[in-house]
Amino acid sequence: MREVKSVLAVMAALAVLLGFPLATAVLVASVATPAMAQQHRTLFCEGTLPVTGDWRPPYETAYALTPGSGFGQRFHPIHKEWRLHAGVDLVSQPAGAPVVAAAAGTVTGSGWTSGGGNTVTIDHGGGISTRYLHLAEPSPLRLGQAVHQGQRIGVEGSTGDSTGSHLHFEIRQDGQPIDPVPFMLERGAPLNGVAVAPSPPAGEDPLPPWVPELPEDGEGGIGFELPAPGEPRQDSLRNPPLPIPSGIQALYEQAGSQYGIPWALLAGIGMAETAHGANTGTSWAGARGLMQFMPATFAAYGVDGDGDGLAQIDNDADSVHSAANYLTASGVHRGEEGVRDALFAYNHAHWYVNDVLYYAQQYGGGLVLGDPLHCEPQGSNPDLPPVSNGRVAQMLAFAAGQEGDSYILGAGGPDAWDCSSLTQTAMAQIGITAPRTAQAQRDWLGMGNGFRVPLDQARPGDLFFFDSYLGPHTIGHVGFVWDPATYTSIEAANPTKGVGHFSYEHALDNNIFEIWRLGNIEDTPKAPS
User: Fold this and answer.
1) Are β-strands 146-147 and 463-467 bridged in parallel, bridged antiparallel, or unpaired?
2) Tens of pLDDT, residues 236-249
3) Residues with Cβ within 8 Å of residue 245, at least 6 apart in sequence
4) Could you tell me the CA-to-CA distances from 63 to 138, 156, 191, 290, 486 in Å, in that order?
5) Contact call for residues 120 and 109 (beta carbons, < 8 A)
6) What pLDDT, on the 0 to 100 scale, is given for residue 451?
7) Cα→Cα distances 77→65, 69, 84, 164, 180, Å
8) Of the candidates 257, 313, 268, which has an alpha carbon nearest to the alpha carbon of residue 290?
9) Which of 101, 89, 68 is CA-nearest to residue 134?
């Protein structure tokens, strides 16, 4: 836990940058309840949040915190006396959902407890344990059994001293109960009721083996499987997938690795367009090359795939890499809907989308390096009131409090982060649930949760975005503006630098560089005080 002195020093610096008295900043740091203007409800993207850190909520479904049943002293509804409520009460939506392990560990208790009914206790090492009370049935877990994060441990119920179906969730440090809400929040797994996707199976790397080595300015990615083909299909009904020439497959694999998409998806396009180069003549519409580009499209998205200094429409390497570049620019990393949208942009026919996905499936499918959420940006929303200075101070104080932490691909706190997990967790400190990756966070802002601002109007707490490891047409990095006058940031920069105050000036001339301001939003808006 970081010292209060350092937090107050951060708040003092923020007070100067944000232009409000230090007394206000100290109030924010100590009680985190500044007066605020009208808040708007957070808009959510389609899908469920992924899991990338070491901790997760104890449900996969949406859930709610029972009012008046937080951690601390309360009047017991059954025993009619004041007692310590040693955890929080959660109710799944709908009630009776499976309960899963919040982190990996070892079962140290499984059975009936007085008051708690069917109970499971899991030791997570370092003196930390979790307890899950009131389960509907005895858990199948046994003492000493190792469990992975997200493993099913039972079903929410109402056994023991309970007035209705719910989960009593406890966290203990060295045997003593502590408040689960700040503990989980600090680890990037806020108990905010939002549905969270299943955790990767035990021992399975959430990233595919073909992901290239993380670049200096890279962002930790997460993945989702290619969507299954649907209906209608057309050419794939009569033209089965053909063997791929080794040289062409090598190009698919190289481009897929560079742009973070399965090579099988490129193979699906290659099969649909030219049967992997068997029919590369100019089409009736004027499309040319292995991946059949229209000259105007190639002029905009063509890249040099073989490093000869030229981007040529009839060069196989250039054609394949340009297809990957075009898919990326068309949103292929933005969830399953994004994959379909990108294929539809490639060829405006729904049967074509399903043909390509069918071929890709036959060639082995694979994982897209991107966010499974689909956020549909509508553009800037300048009429949205900006997030208040007090909330900005609270958010930035958290981010600055992680200075010196490590940058680790996919980490979600409390001592290691990647760029988007740090910004996501900082926003969670003020009651805002944002997506996990940089591109999705930018799209989420653009769908009505914020608005874009010019560089010369940037303020502390704005988020900056730029392209990096996924090519020039996709955002790959995010951080917070700390001091716009000096282009100073607070960010999880890369594995070499870790978390700290750096400069974003180097990215101003990138193909993408944008600054966005959070609106005054919250998952559960508060009335003005």
Assistant:
1) unpaired
2) 999 999 999 999 99
3) 276, 277
4) 22, 11, 9, 50, 43
5) yes
6) 95
7) 16, 10, 12, 11, 21
8) 313
9) 89
